Amino acid sequence: MARDTTDFRPIEGVDELVEHLAEGNKPRDKWRIGTEHEKFPFYVDGNAPVPYGGERGIRAILEGMQTKLGWDPIIDDGRIIGLVEPTGQGAISLEPGGQFELSGAPLETIHQTCREGNAHLAQVREIAEPMGIRFLGLGGSPKWSLAETPKMPKSRYEIMTRYMPKVGTKGLDMMYRTCTIQVNLDFESEADMRRKMQVSLKLQPLSTALFANSPFTESRPNGLQSWRGDIWRDTDNQRSGLLEFCFSPDFGFADYVEWALDVPMYFVIRDGRYHDMTHITFRQFMAGAARNEVPDGLPTMGDWANHLSTLFPDVRLKRFLEMRGADGGPWRRICALPAFWVGLLYDEAALDAAEALTASWTYKEVLAMRNAVPELGIAAPFRNTTLREIARDVMAISRTGLKNRGKKNRDGYDETSFLNTLDEVVARGTTSAEEMLSAYHTRWGGSIEPVFMEYAY
């Protein structure tokens, strides 16, 4: 999230929190696609991490991008920590370890998404390459230890860094050493949200498997295909993971609100200052628990919006749905991830088919699949088959959905071509992670250094 929300309207009751989510309902002609992708900056000389400060640091990249784009700076305690397009059509932000993120504009087609990604990567290369900096498209940092990883000067991250070791064993790795590709998608009603939430929760482990791209840690194979996927198994299970209550046939906005109310907060912002609120839940905050701790210690709608942004389930509900299961990856994957989910969720016939395919899948079955995927990828078992076979059916549904959308570029091609990189995974039966491991044991000669050349932007 590029910029934390400031909205000073007081909260009168829980109904307002439910309505906040329901305000995301949009007619189909207003549905859009918002793609986010993160990447690791590194110095070409020595494949070393890039710190925030200095003439060749991340701050300098942001300042160069600001000059080039004319976007507004996001300032935290006097330091630039991101950029936002003046009309809200996109933003650049920093993850805790310096991961450089583009939060794309809400767009109508995957063609536009791909052009946006191309333009961003060209722009950031233009600024960074003279500094000797490139960017790595992987799901996990392959070389640097946690101690070697830079820390970005963002107030919310300072609070999270103190809190994460209290609630899990892998939260700091999540913050500082992972990258993702996400897509944010719309819904037209509570019922439509429910269908999309349930289908996408059930298929999120498949997304993790198809995009598995983090097999190295601290210069060695880590025994996993998606280290990032494994990290999310013990980050902060109060606020992340597979949400069982979402599997209910009558799941709705109010259920998500009731869950969110009982998750510990991270912070509130008052007078530009972040206050640590990790000791109370949002429900306790509404009951007055912070009245004497922070200025204006009663909750606002801005506090609620920020709280929703600090919840990390596999699919996150805000005024849209966020697909959160995929590892970061090379350029083709940036286009493939939104294509995969748009094909499944934005065409009625495809959504019907995906819903029918997954209708009998139980929470326990999906959880077992989710737990198996980080190690086994698309070879993970499900019932009497494997995820590779499930993927064949799901990819066919997604491709049909994209065909039915009929969104063509100027050359007359529809959006289905963006699935080709995932078709290759299914056809050969090996993930990107397995391909990298094979290279490591053969032509890379037991070194991970070549990954910085072959997977760099």
List the helices and strands and how they pair.
Layout: H1 14-22, E1 33-43, E2 48-49, H2 58-69, E3 72-76, E4 79-84, E5 91-94, E6 100-103, H3 110-128, E7 133-136, H4 155-167, H5 171-177, E8 180-185, H6 190-210, E9 216-217, E10 220-221, H7 227-231, E11 240-241, H8 253-261, E12 267-270, E13 273-276, H9 282-286, H10 301-308, E14 312-313, E15 315-317, E16 321-327, H11 331-345, H12 348-358, H13 363-376, E17 381-382, E18 385-386, H14 387-405, H15 420-428, H16 432-441, H17 451-454
Parallel strand pairs: 11-14
Antiparallel strand pairs: 1-2, 1-6, 1-7, 1-8, 3-4, 4-5, 5-6, 8-16, 9-10, 12-13, 15-16, 17-18
Helix pairs in contact: 1-8, 2-3, 3-11, 6-12, 6-13, 11-14, 12-14
What does this structure look like?
The mean pLDDT is 97. The chain has one domain: Creatine Kinase, Chain A, domain 2. The strands form five sheets. Strands 1, 2, 3, 4, 5, 6, 7, 8, 15 and 16 form a ten-stranded antiparallel beta sheet that branches. Strands 9-10 form a two-stranded antiparallel sheet. Strand 1 (33-43) and strand 2 form a beta hairpin. The protein contains 17 helices and 18 strands. 42% of the residues lie in helices and 16% in strands. The chain has 457 residues and is α+β, with helices and mostly antiparallel strands.
The number of distinct β-strands equals 18
Count of structural domains = 1
Tell me which CATH architecture applies here.
Answer: 2-Layer Sandwich
Low-confidence stretches: none
Number of continuous helical runs = 17
CATH class designation = Alpha Beta
Q: Mind summarizing the main beta sheet?
A: 10 strands, antiparallel
Shape: globular
Helix % is 40-55%
Our Rg estimate from Cα atoms comes to 21 Å
For this structure, the quaternary state is single chain
Based on secondary structure, the structural category is: alpha+beta
Beta-sheet strand percentage? 15-25%
User: Mean of residue pLDDT?
Assistant: 97
What name does the CATH topology carry? Creatine Kinase, Chain A, domain 2
